[in-house]
Amino acid sequence: MLLISNNVHLPDHEIELNAIRAQGAGGQNVNKVSSAVHLRFDIQASSLPDFYKERLLAMRDQRITGDGVIVLKAQQYRTQEQNRADALERLRELILAAVKVEKTRRPTRPTLGSKKRRLEGKSQRGAIKAARGKVDY
């Protein structure tokens, strides 16, 4: 069972984990041992609350297919157990990132002091540039 928050969890039968061979260099071990893990999670068929499902499906993420299936491949570690734990943790982080509500940005105005400092800097820079002109004897 994957614990998402205090009152939301995913049963193991909803998460499909398959062992596959890892890509890339690694010698004999990478060619013989299926240490990478391929995780598939169907959002629509899950027991997640509707709010979670809506937010996940609305995400623009390349790991979510058009059918609403999250596909993760974990091959960072040498053992299958570590890759399995990594894939489950990444799924948990993805779900938590989807339901995180961002604060709305309220536009602010520059302070009077910052305006004065900006204009003083501009006038100083202009004076420096004006002093570069030809000297008339």
Automatic annotation (TrEMBL):
InterPro entries: Pep_chain_release_fac_I, Pep_chain_release_fac_I_sf. It is found in: Cytoplasm. This is Peptidyl-tRNA hydrolase ArfB. It holds the Pfam family RF-1. Belongs to the prokaryotic/mitochondrial release factor family. PANTHER family: PEPTIDYL-TRNA HYDROLASE ARFB (PTHR47814). Transmembrane segments: none annotated. Residues 105-137 are annotated as: Disordered. SUPFAM superfamilies: Release factor. GO terms for molecular function: peptidyl-tRNA hydrolase activity; ribosome binding; translation release factor activity. PROSITE patterns: RF_PROK_I. One of its GO terms (biological process) is regulation of translation. Residues 21-37 form the Prokaryotic-type class I peptide chain release factors domain. Associated with 70S ribosomes and polysomes. GO terms for cellular component: cytoplasm. Keywords: Cytoplasm, Hydrolase, Translation regulation. It is an enzyme of class 3 (hydrolase). Its EC number is 3.1.1.29. Its main location: cytoplasm. It catalyses: an N-acyl-L-alpha-aminoacyl-tRNA + H2O = an N-acyl-L-amino acid + a tRNA + H(+).
